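Field reference: "sequence" (input) and "structure" (output). Example, DUF1080 domain-containing protein:
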Amino acid sequence: MEPGACRLEPVRDGWSANELVKLRQSLADLYGLDSPRRRSCRPPDPGGRVVSNVRRTIAIAAACLTLTALVGGSGTQASAIARDARWRPLFDGKTLEGWLPKIKGYPIGDNFGNSFSVGNGTIRVGYDGYGGVYADRPGFLVTKESFGAFHLRLQYRMVPGAGLPDAQEALRSNSGVLYFVQSPDTLKPAQGMPVGLELQLLGDVGEGPRPTGSICIPKGVFARVFTTRMTNHCIFSTGPTIPNGQWTKVDLIVRPDGSSEHRINGRTVMRVVDPQRDPLDPYAAPLVQKDGVQLRKGHIALQSEGHGIEFKNIEIKPYD
């Protein structure tokens, strides 16, 4: 052996310290891990730090290899799976924790008539406690948390035959997901609808096409569909007509500039841009003074509008 050369010291499992260092460097180069400082070979120190660090790197690399194998070796797909970890439930499947009910004529937090309940892993909107009369008492279940840019996904189904007879004809098999909703502490008892936007959810009533996923604007809000400013309360989407009782997938994507996209069963059916509060509306005016005209952040709500509906698998991935 030449003077100054180091001998390969065997370690457990038949690996030498020199081989382990080289393997660590190769794996670090492959996966972008912190690389060890290149140096001449030397046996492990008495504390075993070289071998310990190498084994840690091998463990990390093994996890990377497992992830790569699961997604077919695609780095792009691996990144997508890592990003998916940001999804989290908005509904725990058992309680209304994190939500507040609001019914027209009642203060925030008063769940009149047990309008919103939980059963079989769903949030149920029902009217058994209304005495058989709707009496123009719309409402909504609003999140305590507010969101800026996000991707929301859920499933809904209209409950067949669960409407109240005195509800307006347009409210049959009708509900919605509300977004950019004003803070719950600013809601007035008389409000049955908040300042915000509505992704309308509809069911089939047997009278021709009734596309779900449309955009509706309550009083106090302006918006554009593509480049056209909305003048009607709602603009129909290109979505399908959904039979009552059928579970339907809904995605709502809100971007940092306030634009939004409605998807039904994976297909985009509506795009909305430039949402704004109306400074002349009595409910919106105080919000304009506090937060400005542009709608860029708000709460999310599920609507009650005279017909029974169920929601499940409610999840969100915030982008901010």
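The longest strand covers residues 150-163.
The radius of gyration is 28 Å.
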